[in-house]
Amino acid sequence: MGWQCKLFYYSCVTRMNHQPVIIVHDSGADWHPDFRDLAKAGCSIYSAPGYRTNAMGDEYAPRNTAASLMRAAALFAGQDVLIVLCDPDMIFARAAEFPEVLSGDFITYMNYDRDFVSDALRGLGMNREQLEPQKDSLRCGVPYVIPITEAHALGTTWLEAVEAFPRRRWEDIMYAFGLAVVKLGLKLNVTHLSDHNYWPAEKVSAPMIHYAYGDERWTKRTFFTDEQVRELWNSTLDAPAGTILGEILGQIREAREFYRDAYFPSTISS
Known about the structure:
Number of strands: 9
């Protein structure tokens, strides 16, 4: 996730003119050098405990998403701010305007009528009647917009809701967010702020891109080892300007120059 965070940081400061906060959860190992590069570039990075594994030894990495909200709630307590919670694999195509209410970005494939949601409801001591009035508006993922006044309670209830899902599918973290909203008696506003790269040749229409997918031409899953990440930064792959893939590849090239020239000029001759 180091290179993704570097790309996100570059995108945020250049398209949003905003300094984001990056939260790194403890994994038992030292920080990857990418995070030290980010700190040198001026990014605010905060450590947080790792929540990947629960007390029963069950591993589920997305718990750290809810834990990031808890950490941000503590960082900004008492300030009049909105927390916009993003995944690392996101960039800004242009400046985004976020609503000043609790919000999530619409996800087409979510369906709260599925049986595993009923199991989680029972685990939380809730019922279908509580969920029914706003189940369609709960079909949301990142970016989440959370007013600071609701952040701590929502983060802790979100973690509680994750534990109510018996199988730990990767998308359970999103369903758990919706159930936490209902359990707390909150209302969720739906946004449409993100394109995704399921169809990478499509024109960019939204202010953000979530590159969670990919195809045989380019996918984030190719770049895992340090050697593969070096290939990412030095790739000559191109795509038409204005397309989703074109925007991703263009910002990778820009970010390479940003980190090399703007902050680490000593590396130019090496």
